[in-house]
């Protein structure tokens, strides 16, 4: 294998050296160093692409990534790897709103609402998806909404045919309530349909930003008959700080067409049904400014 190396001499002239490695592939340690460089620049690497780039087997790349993960250099994901920093990266605050409703967010929201039946008691929190969902809640039939979001409760309080129950406790700066008081209060309800969202979903499970949010989410799941998780492709193949539970804690995942089919198949093998919202190909980029 020929490797090109450029450098500049003291007189400013650019020189190029050509080094031919013994054998047909780079040494494993050198290859891992190069993988780390690529990961730093691209923020994600795929096993298949790396195998093609370095002319080695997929198993060799998988071994590289496993060793690098053990060394704390990266975090393996389905089909590749991400930087370690992405694992502890804070999830976008719930107060942040996606402007103008991207098509895939709208599609997920409408698909979720289509499962609501007359007289259902549903749970909504206060994330971007939940705010999009309330635009499409049925107005023609009576439903009950249980929420831990002051802002969601305020939006729905004058809606006809909708009874609203606000979970009590300490209100944080985003208008959400997820402390120990909220955990106890939600146990007083029976919820027909829980629409949960999360900061991250991977084959390792569903996770969110803080232990408090994770604990409250688990309390809601315990009192819910049907448990849905809503997630756009941006939240897939990541792990946030606090785990809510394994994939099979939920009955249905509603996502968009940006989530790879291979990943969807792997999720279903773990016992979680997956529905792709129609017309949800992500053509717009979220604006968090």
TrEMBL record:
GO molecular function list: DNA-binding transcription factor activity
Record SMART domains: DeoRC (SM01134), HTH_DEOR (SM00420)
Pfam families attached to this UniProt entry: DeoRC, HTH_DeoR
Keyword presence, Transcription regulation: yes
Residues in the signal sequence: none
InterPro entries hit by this protein: Carb_Metab_HTH_regulators, DeoR-like_C, DeoR_HTH, NagB/RpiA_transferase-like, WH-like_DNA-bd_sf, WH_DNA-bd_sf
Keyword tRNA processing: no
Residue intervals of the HTH deoR-type domain: 28-83
Keyword terms: Transcription, Transcription regulation
PANTHER family linked to this entry: HTH-TYPE TRANSCRIPTIONAL REGULATOR SRLR-RELATED, HTH-TYPE TRANSCRIPTIONAL REPRESSOR GLCR
Protein name: HTH-type transcriptional repressor GlcR
Species annotation: Brevibacillus laterosporus LMG 15441
């Amino acid at each position: 294998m020929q490797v090109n190396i450029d450098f500049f001499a003291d007189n400013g002239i650019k020189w190029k050296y050509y080094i031919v490695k013994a054998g047909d592939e780079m040494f494993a340690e050198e290859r891992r160093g190069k993988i780390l460089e690529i990961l730093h620049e691209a923020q994600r690497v795929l096993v298949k692409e790396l195998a093609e780039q370095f002319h080695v087997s997929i198993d060799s790349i998988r071994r590289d990534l496993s060793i690098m993960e053990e060394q704390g250099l990266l975090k393996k994901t389905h089909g590749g790897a991400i930087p370690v920093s992405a694992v502890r990266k804070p999830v976008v605050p719930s107060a942040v709103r996606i402007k103008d409703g991207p098509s895939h967010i709208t599609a997920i929201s409408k698909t979720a609402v289509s499962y609501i039946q007359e007289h259902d008691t549903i749970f909504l929190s206060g994330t971007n998806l939940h705010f999009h969902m309330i635009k499409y809640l049925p107005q023609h039939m009576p439903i009950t909404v249980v929420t831990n979001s002051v802002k969601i409760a305020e939006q729905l309080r004058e809606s006809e045919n909708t009874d609203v129950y606000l979970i009590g406790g300490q209100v944080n700066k985003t208008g959400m309530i997820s402390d120990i008081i909220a955990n106890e209060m939600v146990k007083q309800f029976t919820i027909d349909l829980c629409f949960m969202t999360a900061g991250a979903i991977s084959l390792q499970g569903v996770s969110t930003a803080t232990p408090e949010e994770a604990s409250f989410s688990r309390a809601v799941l315990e009192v819910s008959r049907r448990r849905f998780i809503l997630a756009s492709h941006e939240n897939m193949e990541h792990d946030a700080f606090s785990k809510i539970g394994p994939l099979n804690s939920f009955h249905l995942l509603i996502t968009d067409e940006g989530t790879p089919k291979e990943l969807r198949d792997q999720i279903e093998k773990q016992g979680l049904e997956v529905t792709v919202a129609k017309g949800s190909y992500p053509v717009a980029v979220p604006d968090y400014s």
